Amino acid sequence: MTKAVVVTRTGGPEVLTYADREIPTPGPGEALVRVTAAGVNYIDTYHREGIYTLPLPFGLGLEGAGTITAVGDDVGDLAVGDRVAWADALGSYAEHVLVKATAAVRVPDGVDDETAAAAMLQGLTAHYLVTSTYPARPVDTVLVHAAAGGVGLLLVQLAKARGARVIGTVSTSDKEALAREAGADEVIRYTEEDFAARTLELTDGEGVAAVYDGVGRTTFDGSLSVVKRRGTMALFGAASGPVAPVDPQRLNSGGSLFLTRPKLADHVATEEELRWRADELFGSIVDGSLKVRIGGRYPLAEARQAHEDLQGRRTTGKLLLIP
Known about the structure:
This protein has 323 residues and is α/β, with parallel strands linked by helices. It contains 9 helices and 16 strands. This is NADPH2:quinone reductase.
């Protein structure tokens, strides 16, 4: 038997159950992994709440890192004993999980398992945002919401590495210090001043080339108002709730704006793209140019507390569950 966090009914963090499950057997194209660390992400709360529906019951979590203990047929060059990480294996809040061989990436020497787990889903998200959704350039000023969060800290670093000027929003002085440490040129405490007005002030009224917004409902209108002519509004999450329907005419009146709602799956749709993004991320971690902040480690049995802390905005960086 193995331990796992299971959802038998949707709802708040109280629905999370720490339970015994049979250790699964890998089928064709699958590897069984002993999980060293599982990443906690906002999408997990959407699954738990039923915003993104899954057949009940289900094991929670998508991301993690660990060591392969068994393999099925047709797994390519993966082998027992390999250290791997992944961002798309449902049921990753567990001691053991089945991972598709096409979703697993080898963890290089110089990257420990906890860092690998912390870097996958949020790191790949930050990577596609600044390289594909809106490729940040040295001539650009961009706005990053929740700049001290898991994705935010990585976004700030990756945008700065591409030469952009970065404005970040945070809620507290401690989070401001983290955002500045990551390289943010300007930091706005949205709890003390209007971030939209301050952003326009910092850009001499021109606005920003792109807004990377994972907050959603509470920031969307202000974000759209600070995008410069022909700029991009990238809404990649909804931590504060879903955004109401948008009249496309707002994009016209705002200056021929681009609005997109990207997701990770469409940016790692092939093995080649997944490995390209993962290789760049791990390479930056190994050479020290990208720092992954682990903001909290919880025993696997305390997944409920991790969710409460994440949704209560009491966290910075990445949260991990440790079996």
